[in-house]
Amino acid sequence: EAQVTQNPRYLITVTGKKLTVTCSQNMNHEYMSWYRQDPGLGLRQIYYSMNVEVTDKGDVPEGYKVSRKEKRNFPLILESPSPNQTSLYFCASRFVGGGNQPQHFGDGTRLSIL
Amino acid sequence: GQNIDQPTEMTATEGAIVQINCTYQTSGFNGLFWYQQHAGEAPTFLSYNVLDGLEEKGRFSSFLSRSKGYSYLLLKELQMKDSASYLCALNTNAGKSTFGDGTTLTVKP
Question: Which residue of B has its CA nearest to A107?
């Protein structure tokens, strides 16, 4: 089954404790992206990657890191999480070629930073 | 920037037609996308427009006017399961993707 898989689905942690949210897709998509969604604010892009070893900042990259060492994986790293990073996070992927392509989203990761 | 505006909430009756508008201010984009998101779930793709005009996909249609900075999503024969949030999004060639804050649609019997 074609899918984007995020782990963990839920995490409660404390300020300053490094964490990684994994994202993996099995559709051979070149493009992957991370978003956060807060109440009333819609989806905001954190980082995106057009292909392996190519990453760029989205609109809200502060406090986050990403890496794209393999095509299928795009982990989101919070080196020193803070309470304002409490949010619902979505990973997405899509093809780059052939003009516009829709994004496929993972089921989301709900992070609570205390 | 790519500011995107959508109404926050809309209510419609089962079986009716509803139009959800999206206006934007941007210097350029590849395509305009519409996604559906049920509460607590991931967004799922509904429709997209690259060129001006109407794109029809079953009960859902989307329209784009680049000169007017305007798009709409049309939902026909509304069903209770259409109660959800509808997100308008713009993609650029460079890979950036900007979403509106979404329109929460409530379908009543």
Answer: B42
Q: Is A103 on the interface with B (CB under 8 A)?
A: yes
Q: Find the range with the poorest average confidence among A6-10, A54-58, B27-31, B95-99.
A: B27-31
Distance in angstroms (rounded) separating the CA atoms of residues A105 and A100: 16
Give A98's pLDDT tier (boundaries 50, 70, 90). Answer: low
Model pLDDT, residue A13 = 95
C-alpha distance from A6 to closest chain B C-alpha (Å)? 11
Residue A66 and residue A74 in contact, taking contact as beta carbons nearer than 8 Å: yes
Distance CA A5, CA B97 (A): 20
HSE-up of residue B58 (Cα within 13 Å, Cβ side): 3
Sign, CA dihedral A51-A52-A57-A58, equals positive
- 3-class secondary-structure state, position B81: helix
Taken as a whole, chain B contains a residue count of 109
Q: How many CB pairs under 8 A join A and B?
A: 60
CB contact under 8 A, A90 and B42: yes
Alpha-carbon gap, residue B13 to B107, rounded angstroms: 5
Contact yes or no for B10/B30 (Cβ under 8 A): no
